């Protein structure tokens, strides 16, 4: 068998699947169609839903592509919220005047998982809101406390309802005037319930012990800026999924309290696919968010971990936009199966350079090359050398102006 190494550009020009036109009158630039050099210009909010998945191996340019979308979306008046696991979005946030919130055990920024949305109207009954909050917090507690029995699950359910009730959060309450409970309030209720001693012991780690700085305070962060980034880089690995779950729950409460055009970006979403409760939570968000003018972008480089979950595959199905950049040989067969790619498309993803891949919009797809202007590149670069040079130039400028 004779084999030749080919540059990905001639490969892209060789296959007919890349002929779809993805240019619309409105929207933002995602890149250039590598087949015919036309612009891939799209408004994600014009689709059946505004959700997007981004799959790529490390170094394939996924963060660069997403930061470009953030920058261009901001110019179109869209609010953007980012879950940042590796502090990759701080430079962009600082450059555009965004709000950068660091969530850690020692941080003063707090998110309370017991928060409730402020209803926009009477379209959702208060008892439904309380019921939904109980289910959401119970999902978080199942992850926090590890394996719990059916009896313990029932105890937690009753304890959560009582915890809210002790703060006058009942079906006839005005949610605009109540103060949500915190984790300590739940522990106090559990201490008065029969059969809950093991649950109390496990919960004490989050109220009095090592992790008490994370969930045991009222929320004191705000989302009034057009760009808000939540960093979880400084959290231990076991706490990251818990913190992301709580942050996204808070974001979802804000989204349901005020309907406006927003994008939520969840980087390294595979963290949430490792546990069934968090995976189910994200899938429910992706399914329901269109009603509130929200588009959810899930990004991962651990494609196999993400797609191994039934909820991961369902998230792909419920995302009208999909961006596949270079894939690893270990993951490409799974990607080919899920996205029903031809062998030609599969090999294109193996050979693609940074910022190159396949862009899907509904039933159409095309080979894409992500492009940026010089100014955009300076704002969104992930190159450590470039970032050092930018930081050095900024420092020199500040010294000259003193």
Structural class: alpha/beta
CATH architecture of the largest domain: 3-Layer(aba) Sandwich
Mean pLDDT: 89
Count the strands?
11
User: Which radius of gyration do the C-alpha atoms yield?
Assistant: 23 Å
Number of domains: 2
CATH superfamily of the largest domain: P-loop containing nucleotide triphosphate hydrolases
What is the N-to-C order of secondary-structure elements (H for helix, E for strand)?
HEEEHEHEHHHHHEHEHHEHHEHHEEHH
Put simply, the count of helices is: 17
Largest sheet: 11 strands, mixed
Global geometry? globular
The N- and C-terminal alpha carbons lie at a distance of 68 Å
- Fraction of residues in β-strands: 5-15%
Helix content: 40-55%
Looking at the structure, the CATH topology of the largest domain is Rossmann fold
Look at the structure and give the CATH class of the largest domain. Answer: Alpha Beta
Low-confidence stretches: 12-16
Quaternary status: single chain
- Give the strand order, joined by hyphens, for the main sheet: 2-1-11-10-9-3-8-7-4-6-5
At a glance:
With 402 residues, this protein is an alpha/beta fold. Helices cover 45% and strands 14% of the residues.
Your description of this structure?
The structure is a single chain. The protein is an alpha/beta fold. The protein folds into two domains: 8-97 and 227-400, Rossmann fold (3-Layer(aba) Sandwich), CATH 3.40.50; 126-214, Helicase, Ruva Protein, domain 3 (Orthogonal Bundle). 45% of the residues lie in helices and 14% in strands. The protein has 17 helices and eleven strands. The protein has helices spanning 8-13, 62-75, 90-96, 126-145, 150-166, 183-191, 197-207, 212-215, 240-257, 270-273, 276-288, 303-308, 310-317, 329-339, 343-351, 374-380, 384-400; strands spanning 28-33, 39-42, 52-55, 79-84, 99-102, 227-231, 262-266, 294-300, 321-325, 356-361, 364-369. An eleven-stranded mixed sheet has the order 2-1-11-10-9-3-8-7-4-6-5, with helices on both faces. A hairpin with a 2-residue loop joins strand 10 and strand 11. Helix 4 runs antiparallel to helix 9 (240-257), helix 11 packs parallel to helix 13 (310-317) and helix 14 runs antiparallel to helix 15. It is globular. The relative contact order is 0.20. The model is unreliable at 12-16 (pLDDT under 50).
């Amino acid at each position: 068998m004779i084999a030749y190494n080919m540059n990905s550009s001639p490969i892209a020009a060789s296959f007919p699947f890349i002929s779809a036109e993805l240019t619309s009158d409105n929207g933002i630039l995602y890149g250039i169609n590598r087949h015919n050099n036309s612009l891939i210009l799209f408004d994600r909010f014009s689709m059946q839903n505004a959700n997007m998945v981004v799959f790529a191996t490390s170094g394939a340019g996924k963060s660069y592509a997403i930061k470009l979308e953030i920058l261009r979306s901001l110019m179109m008046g869209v609010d953007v919220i980012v879950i940042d696991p590796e502090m990759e979005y701080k430079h962009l946030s600082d450059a555009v005047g965004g709000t950068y919130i660091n969530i850690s055990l020692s941080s003063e920024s707090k998110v309370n998982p017991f928060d409730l949305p402020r209803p926009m109207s009477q379209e959702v009954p208060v008892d439904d809101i309380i019921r939904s909050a109980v289910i959401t917090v119970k999902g978080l507690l199942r992850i926090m406390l590890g394996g719990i029995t059916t009896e313990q699950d029932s105890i937690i359910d009753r304890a959560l309802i009582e915890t809210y009730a002790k703060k006058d959060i009942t079906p006839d309450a005005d949610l605009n005037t109540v103060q949500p409970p915190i984790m300590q309030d739940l522990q106090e209720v559990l201490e008065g319930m029969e059969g809950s001693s093991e649950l109390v012991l496990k919960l004490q780690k989050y109220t009095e012990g090592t992790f008490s700085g994370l969930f045991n305070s009222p929320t004191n962060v705000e989302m009034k800026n057009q760009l808000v980034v939540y960093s979880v880089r400084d959290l231990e690995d076991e706490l990251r999924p818990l913190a992301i779950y709580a942050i996204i729950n808070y974001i979802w409460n804000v989204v349901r309290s005020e309907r406006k055009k927003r994008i939520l970006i969840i980087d390294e979403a595979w963290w949430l696919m490792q546990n069934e409760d968090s995976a189910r939570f994200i899938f429910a968000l992706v399914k329901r968010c269109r009603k509130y003018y929200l588009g959810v972008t899930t990004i991962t480089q651990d494609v196999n971990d993400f797609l191994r979950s039934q909820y991961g595959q369902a998230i792909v199905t419920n995302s009208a936009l999909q961006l596949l950049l270079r894939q690893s040989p270990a993951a490409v067969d799974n990607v080919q199966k899920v996205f029903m790619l031809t062998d030609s498309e599969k090999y294109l993803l193996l050979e693609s350079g940074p910022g190159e891949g396949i862009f899907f919009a509904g039933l159409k797809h095309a080979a894409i090359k992500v492009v940026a202007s010089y100014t955009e590149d300076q704002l969104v670069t992930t190159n450590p050398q470039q970032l050092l040079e930018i930081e050095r130039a900024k420092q020199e400028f500040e010294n000259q102006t003193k």
